[in-house]
Automatic annotation (TrEMBL):
InterPro entries: Diverse_substrate_MTase, Methyltransf_11, SAM-dependent_MTases_sf. The keyword Cell inner membrane does not apply. It comes from Actinomadura coerulea. This is SAM-dependent methyltransferase. Residues 41-133 form the Methyltransferase type domain. GO terms for molecular function: S-adenosylmethionine-dependent methyltransferase activity. One of its GO terms (biological process) is methylation. The keyword Transferase applies. Keywords: Methyltransferase, Transferase. Belongs to the methyltransferase superfamily. The lineage of its organism: Bacteria, Bacillati, Actinomycetota, Actinomycetes, Streptosporangiales.
């Protein structure tokens, strides 16, 4: 979906309020100390998370379905990460079982039709003691924007940004459904985070800061495999 506007989106995400000062701090905070860990950056986009993970001492592999994004991510990380063009609706067959200490999936879960299969594949590649850190649109944010019943589970076609022609297709789901999919894939929620904007946003993007202090746009999770 992003291929047509990949360069525009990458320039936006580098320093935007919702990406740079809201989601990335939340996701990287849940990732914790990654020094010495092998991290799989799923749907790596233009490499903004991969670069930060590498700078924090991780070994990084990852993929994205967009060739433009993978090229940008490879350049952004200086070739230090093993990044490949791959559709995550199919298995990441180059990643052996138990080969990643952490999987990161930032703002992409809602694009997949079979999210349980995707999460099961993440569980396959996780080493013992590993975790998945992911973020997605907060169900309440979708309901406030789209209306109708909060409990609807359906794909929605709209623009990623209201003032740009960035068409996407994403699922709206209530929080109950999101959590049920984690359980069906064999995960437990270790931590659930409704992010707060970082203080810098108040100075640089005061309107966005005020909005996000009233109502969350995203929700993030740290998942660990269940014992069963």
């Amino acid at each position: 979906m992003y291929e047509r506007f990949a360069h525009e989106y990458a320039a936006h995400a580098e320093d935007s309020s919702y990406n740079a000062l809201y989601d990335r701090p939340a996701v990287l905070g849940l990732a914790g100390d990654v020094a010495g860990l092998t991290v799989f950056d799923a749907a790596c986009g233009p490499g903004l998370y991969a670069r930060e993970l590498l700078d924090r001492g991780a070994r990084v592999a990852g993929c994205d379905v967009s060739p433009t994004f993978v090229d940008m991510a490879t350049k952004r990380t200086g070739g230090r990460a093993d990044l490949r063009v791959h559709d995550l609706s199919t298995p990441v067959d180059w990643m052996p079982d138990a080969s990643a200490d952490l999987v990161v999936l930032a703002l992409a879960l809602h694009y997949f039709d079979d999210r349980v299969a995707l999460l099961k594949e993440f569980r396959r590649i996780l080493a013992p003691g590993g975790a998945v850190v992911l973020s997605t649109e907060h169900p309440m944010a979708g309901w406030l924007r789209l209306g109708g019943s909060y409990f609807l589970e359906e794909p929605v076609e709209e623009s990623l940004s209201p003032d740009r022609d960035w068409p996407i297709r994403a699922w709206r789901r209530p929080l109950t459904a999101i959590c049920a999919e984690f359980r069906a894939a064999g995960f437990l929620i270790e931590e659930l985070l409704e992010p707060r904007p970082v203080p810098e946003m108040a100075e640089r993007y005061p309107e966005d800061h005020a909005k996000l202090e009233r109502s969350p746009a995203f929700v993030a999770f740290r998942l660990v495999p269940s014992r069963s």
